[in-house]
Amino acid sequence: MQTLKEVQKVKKTTLTSAFKSVGGEMYALAEELYPLCRSITGAGTRDTLEILKHHIPLVMSKIPSGTKVFDWEVPKEWNIRDAYVLDPLGQKIIDFKKSNLHVVNYSIPVHKKMSLQELRRHIYTLPEYPDWIPYRTTYYKEDWGICMTHKQFQGLNEGTYEVHIDSSLESGYLTYGELLIEGEQKEEVLISTHICHPSLCNDNLSGISMATFLAKHLMGKKNRYSYRFLFIPGTIGAITWLSINEQKTGGVRHGLIAALLGDTGPFTYKKSRRGDAEIDQVVQYVLERNDKRNKVIDFVPYGYDERQFCSPGFNMPVGCLTRTPYGEYPEYHTSADNLTFISADSLEGSLKIYLKIITVLEANRKYINILPKCEPQLGKRGLYEAIGGNNDARKFQLALLWVLNMSDGEHTLLDIARKSVIDFETLMEAAFQLEKKKLIKGRREKGDQ
Amino acid sequence: MQTLKEVQKVKKTTLTSAFKSVGGEMYALAEELYPLCRSITGAGTRDTLEILKHHIPLVMSKIPSGTKVFDWEVPKEWNIRDAYVLDPLGQKIIDFKKSNLHVVNYSIPVHKKMSLQELRRHIYTLPEYPDWIPYRTTYYKEDWGICMTHKQFQGLNEGTYEVHIDSSLESGYLTYGELLIEGEQKEEVLISTHICHPSLCNDNLSGISMATFLAKHLMGKKNRYSYRFLFIPGTIGAITWLSINEQKTGGVRHGLIAALLGDTGPFTYKKSRRGDAEIDQVVQYVLERNDKRNKVIDFVPYGYDERQFCSPGFNMPVGCLTRTPYGEYPEYHTSADNLTFISADSLEGSLKIYLKIITVLEANRKYINILPKCEPQLGKRGLYEAIGGNNDARKFQLALLWVLNMSDGEHTLLDIARKSVIDFETLMEAAFQLEKKKLIKGRREKGDQ
Amino acid sequence: MQTLKEVQKVKKTTLTSAFKSVGGEMYALAEELYPLCRSITGAGTRDTLEILKHHIPLVMSKIPSGTKVFDWEVPKEWNIRDAYVLDPLGQKIIDFKKSNLHVVNYSIPVHKKMSLQELRRHIYTLPEYPDWIPYRTTYYKEDWGICMTHKQFQGLNEGTYEVHIDSSLESGYLTYGELLIEGEQKEEVLISTHICHPSLCNDNLSGISMATFLAKHLMGKKNRYSYRFLFIPGTIGAITWLSINEQKTGGVRHGLIAALLGDTGPFTYKKSRRGDAEIDQVVQYVLERNDKRNKVIDFVPYGYDERQFCSPGFNMPVGCLTRTPYGEYPEYHTSADNLTFISADSLEGSLKIYLKIITVLEANRKYINILPKCEPQLGKRGLYEAIGGNNDARKFQLALLWVLNMSDGEHTLLDIARKSVIDFETLMEAAFQLEKKKLIKGRREKGDQ
């Protein structure tokens, strides 16, 4: 367990002064990653991981195309160098170099002239948002497509168009990055974020940036838990990791999917499938106290990679903590999810919330009262006199009594916070003092070292 | 389990076109049975069962008077041929042939002249409803009585009256009817209705008619469960059946008491004593979606034969589904509960509700995901492409994901409907498709064959 | 179990006519005890117990100073004969004989002249209530102090003061009183009240008086449970009793801390740490029906001696039933908590509530239906005919059916009262009649003889 001093250091130093520029650094990382054309495989994704390695010592795994992963198999590797469309006058009306969203992700190579009629069958637009380019993929069906603004689509004249997609879809690798920060215990907290979206910011450069800086922060500390960070392509990446690392899943005591963390909305936490896992309780507690607008919703079997971690054969204690949930803002999966849609402040606020959650997770234990019959005499141990008579002192004394009374090995500090309506930090301090005086001790848990 | 096709056939064919006249037929049966003077024993009850045999192959049981049935014994058989009262002028002022309610049910034979004062001690009226004749019984105390309108009672003059009740109370039989429709499984759904009331329609020709047509319908189908229908006199009939068939009670997985199904009120379901039996959950679900005015109430140990089925020594999963509950409408147990008080539409509506409940019961299973680790790849099985992009398709895809995720052998389809807020029929269809693709299988239950 | 007759006798005789003067007697006892200077040890406390012995045969226990009791030890015995303060003019401005609150309880002997400046460091007042003297203690730190009104404090002139505290703090005894009233069963109901406060009425002469008269009442009756009354100094007395009587704690099936029972406020019940102990259910039921203003609150680990009885090593089913809770009225722990603050009516009302609770506790049992299959025939046992047709009779018949149906050995009468919304007394009567007719029997509990 962290000592109180360390926690306070996190709280006071890290979360205020030291963080003055963290949001800016987080934003800068997103900015650096923005131009790359990521996908579930390919060079853009690998380059993304290489940039992250400037911040944290990621270990890269390369899984060959065709590898069986549960009911799926690792797809061919997709790479794209360039793409454009020439209109009947030979003018370049679509240019991949201007926006990689113009090409449906995983489009097969195309070099072909065609009528407008034929071209139209491959064009995707957003009639409701005529200035935005949609984001589309065709991972598991060999096809191709061009995304453009609806405004541009409406201006297309009849005639012969020329489509060039200089892509390749060949046997290769699926690549993901992983980082294990070892703690006092082998039991792990899993933080997973998806890295497969091209030039889209909130979904999910925000998650990538937050996870990177969270890992960076935790690397500098002595932690109770071990922390495992996954930077993986959505769905197939999670399935691949789970397939290869099945034996590690039992060691995950808490987990969070990090995504959609750069917009200005309040937080939404989607509980794990278990619904009452410790991570569910802790995130709910932190969010409730942070902002009344934050929301906690029940598990649903769609969304991000919690779908895989919470499939019934795993049922891991993994929830998903975002700001505005996916699909609930119009910019979602469009060219409007760009660098203006996210902000340094929002990214930093997201990092702070993740850190608060980790502070509570690290300190949340069940204690055992060593002198459980009647109250111990606090006065002779200086826990009564020391505290004078003001309000804070009284609150602290109540915290001591609550921790003593509830330390029967069945109640966590968070349970006590709920029952007593005393804030978690005060109870942490009380537990720290009581442990120092040998009045309580932490309960050994399965998985503790 | 019914295939989806069969269910839809029920839903579309049976419940609309084929039902155009079912309400009429149900009403006609009530009309045919109305004149008979039923009781807990005797010819009227036997004749009633004989008429039902024109519709369904009832098996009749005759239990001799004096048979010990738990704490009770089968009473003497009561029969009545005629009854009348002559006033001081010799005028027939009460005539059994005009209404069998005029004679207190189970009255002993009487042939006697008496003063008005003496007669009065045997007269029952309803001062609050002066035009209605009350329904009274004296099954377990040898006595006699005359029921009349309060208006007529107030017009009686002093003088000598002559009372003739041509009844008999002799050793004989208690008779009930029973029908077992065998299904794929031996486990049974019990539908029980009481048949002991004379010329009263809602209580309970409506129940008799509904149960008859429900049985008729189920006989024409291949059912998962076996269905046992009981047409029994109230209280003593249930006690008798339970006493003789004690070893069969363990095979009853769900049960409903059918009564009061012809009036125009919304439905009221009284839960089984267990309170959370599957039948309780299913009926609640169906009623909630059918009409906001429907009500579900907790078990109380009075009412109809659920009193016996839910006595603590049996505690069977048997609830009671009526329209307006007993005692909550003024016509209850009076001559106003006649053929104008019930309607073909209400009877048909009741049959439909029972059929909907049975549709859900039949399909409600716990499934086991055969590929529980991560999501299976739906696309390669045509469960993704097949469904296009419209709203229904999206809803159906969510249904597939919900069924897959919750199919851990612990959740029924109804549990999934509650959690997902997707309607049961869509989940049925999803389960049907997933089972066809060998992605899930039904969990074997104790009692499944 | 008490017979119904006995219960009704309590209800009608004792609680109305016989009680006409009980409140007066209770008040008179408080009046008699008021002048004594009680503390956690010493003559005042012993004298208090001697006076109680005029009412009930208390057994006194004397535990020597220095005895180890769990984490504590029995303190030195404190006695005080006189105390006064002379002002610079030699006038007696503080006189212990006028109010024993003037001296901080457990003050060491003092005979000393001092400046006002030095004296001030030992003076305690209540600026918010300038006419009241505060009550202060210094049990575990050898010190001394003078309590006075703030008004008097503000009038003190510079000069030399003379302080005389003729007290002693020497090896001696901690004394407490105990009374066991044996019942049919060895299992006990514990009633504990603290006796350590000097001239303060609500806290806690009211508790002492109530407990004394409750004991007196129960001694005259044949009870199901045994009743143990403790008259002990707060905290150290409870710790001492528990330390000496650890092996008896398992026999306590229900317990109440009695305190603050003389003011005019409604009742507040603080639940035991278990939260759903039978005592918690019973008190909640009685309070709800007694007055809408009564409150039930969750356990908190501070307050009176429930702190010790509900420490995690004991976790006894002991709640605390007061009127206005401690600290929630301004007179608390001041000279204003005097004989005008409590009343005969309030004391009597408190006794009645405790008696009602005991009536329910005594009668609250789980029964077993001897004929659990179907309903027994009530008519042939006179339980049907006897009751005619009025409302009370109908209610009583429903009570019979409820008790029969729920008597599966799992439901207490109180559970049935909750489910049926029939009042407990009617259900008691129904259970009494059914037991007489050998239709139900009480379930043997662990601890029953």
From TrEMBL, chains A, B, C:
Coiled coil: none annotated. The keyword Zinc applies. Its cofactor is Zn(2+). Zn(2+) binds at H197, D203, H333. Signal peptide: none annotated. Residues 77-168 form the DUF2172 domain. It holds the Pfam family HTH_47. Keywords: Metal-binding, Zinc. Binds 1 zinc ion per subunit. Residues 27-364 form the DUF4910 domain. It comes from the Bacteria. GO terms for molecular function: metal ion binding. Residues 366-441 form the UCP01524 winged helix-turn-helix domain. This is DUF4910 domain-containing protein.
